[in-house]
Amino acid sequence: MIELSTVFNTAFQGGLTFPATPLQTQYYATQLFNGLMLGMTLVLVSLGLTIIFGLLGVINFAHGDILLVGTYIAWTVQSATGSFVFAIVAAVVGTFLTGIVIERTLLRYTYGRYDALLQLLLTFGIAEFLRGGVMLVWGQSGKNFPNPAWAQGAVDLVLFSYPLYRVFVIVVAGLLIVALYLFLNWTDLGLLIRAGTQDRDMVDALGIDVSRIYLLVFGIGAALAGIAGVLIGPIRAAHPTLGIELLIPAFVVVVVGGLGSFRGTIIAGILIGELQVLTGMFYSQAAEVVVFLFMAIVLLVRPRGLFGKEGVIE
């Protein structure tokens, strides 16, 4: 689970007073941005899960450990070259290829033959294999992932100053979300992917090689996880449990937003991020529990999540 106390400085010194003092106003604003940053990172992870489930119908339990592979690849490249940009590129390529290998060699043989539980167990096994491979290659100790030199310092946002690197994470995540939305809605391939989520047989009947689309979608989903792993690396450091720590809240985001819902994933990711951080301001031990409580309430009211429609990427 995500230990927010190790990610964000949520210890509030001096108690609560109303109206807030200028120092408290800065603190509240900083925590809101921390929640947004965490939420945007979770959105990237969750969108990979969403598009994979929307088209392939696979709940990918290996998603977090694909993220882990990307984080360690990025750490290795940055350590060797000193370039954070090269690290991002290497992580994207590495996780994309990892996703392609997994889909082509293992998952493709399960479509239409095995139920979701067996697919889930298969991806669980893949996750264990990837995590074990990471520990075999890089060891079990964490790796310090420094901020890139050009992202040191803070940005003056009028009411408060905020770390430049975290602003970078928010902006990059936002641009990637917009780019993915435009890809799915304004390109021929993106429209084919959306059509495939609604009627795979129809797309196949049109003479389109659905297997190649499946391959590409799984690769894109894996690459999104890889990018998220790189972005969170300087904040969380690279360690073997990073993937599972991000995967669990990402699953919550997907369920709350609605399985297969692009819009729901974005809204739920930001809500979950803010909810965790703001709860941690007052009672850090409840920061993770409240997320699952929120999920339970949403499912009681909306069993398919906030925006979910069966088998559809909206």
Brief synopsis:
The chain crosses the membrane at residues 36-62, 82-102, 114-138, 164-184, 213-235, 247-273, 280-301. The protein is an all-alpha fold. It has helices spanning 4-7, 22-56, 63-81, 84-105, 116-138, 164-186, 188-198, 200-205, 210-236, 242-257, 262-282, 289-301; strands at residues 154-156, 161-163.
Summarize the SSE layout with pairings.
Layout: H1 4-7, H2 22-56, H3 63-81, H4 84-105, H5 116-138, E1 154-156, E2 161-163, H6 164-186, H7 188-198, H8 200-205, H9 210-236, H10 242-257, H11 262-282, H12 289-301
Antiparallel strand pairs: 1-2
Helix pairs in contact: 2-6, 2-9, 2-10, 2-11, 3-4, 3-5, 3-9, 3-10, 4-9, 6-7, 10-11, 10-12
Membrane topology: Multi-pass membrane protein
Protein name: Branched-chain amino acid ABC transporter permease
Transmembrane segments: 36-62, 82-102, 114-138, 164-184, 213-235, 247-273, 280-301
Describe this protein's structure.
Keywords: Amino-acid transport, Cell membrane, Membrane, Transmembrane, Transmembrane helix, Transport. With 314 residues, the chain is mainly α. It has one domain (4-301): Orthogonal Bundle (ABC transporter involved in vitamin B12 uptake, BtuC), CATH 1.10.3470. Helix content is 70%, strand content 2%. The protein has 12 helices and 2 strands. It has helices at 4-7, 22-56, 63-81, 84-105, 116-138, 164-186, 188-198, 200-205, 210-236, 242-257, 262-282, 289-301, and strands at 154-156, 161-163. α3 packs parallel to α5.
